[in-house]
Amino acid sequence: MNIAYWTVAGLLALFYCYSGTLKVIRSRDQLRPMMAWVDRLPLPALRALGTVEILGAAGLILPPLTGVAPWLAPAAAIGFVLLQTGAIAVHLTGEDRRVALNVGLAATAAVTTWLATGL
Questions:
Q1: So where are the chain's domains?
Q2: Which of 5, 32, 23 is nearest to 83 (CA)?
Q3: 46 CB contacts (<8 Å, ≥6 apart)?
Q4: How far apart are CA 97 and CA 111, in angstroms?
Q5: DSSP one-letter string for 89-109
Q6: Do 112 and 60 touch, CB atoms closer than 8 A?
Q7: What's residue 96's pLDDT?
């Protein structure tokens, strides 16, 4: 179960670290081709969302790795489930109805939550 956690959590952390970094450093014009919904959020909220994604990625990896506050790993994974639930709502209320990636990420975060409870 430990190998499964590190595999799934590592991939999820890589995805969110990349995605969060893009949201923090790129302009709205640079993000628009990848994320059609960026015009629906204020820029500070978009930057905050990217920061939350980066911190959540760290929360999946650092606590189990260091042994300090390991309860943060399942909390970060639950946070990603909630984040993707909100993302699905944002997509469905706008013109962009593509939610397959969001559903997959929510499911992966749910599996990570389950795997993290066995650490």
A1: 2-116
A2: 23
A3: 23, 28, 31, 38
A4: 24
A5: HHHHHSS----HHHHHHHHHH
A6: yes
A7: 77
Print pLDDT tens along the chain (119 aa): 699 999 999 999 999 999 999 999 999 999 999 988 898 889 999 999 999 999 999 999 999 999 999 999 999 999 999 999 999 999 898 877 889 999 999 999 999 999 999 86
Query: Residue with structure tokens 């969001």?
Result: 102
Q: Which residues contact 30 (CB under 8 A, 6 or more apart)?
A: none
Task: Note the pLDDT of residue 95.
Answer: 77
Six-digit token pair at 103?
A: 């559903």
* Phi-psi group of 28: left, alpha or beta (phi > 0 → left; psi -120 to 50 → alpha; rest → beta): alpha
CB–CB of 70/63 below 8 Å? Answer: yes
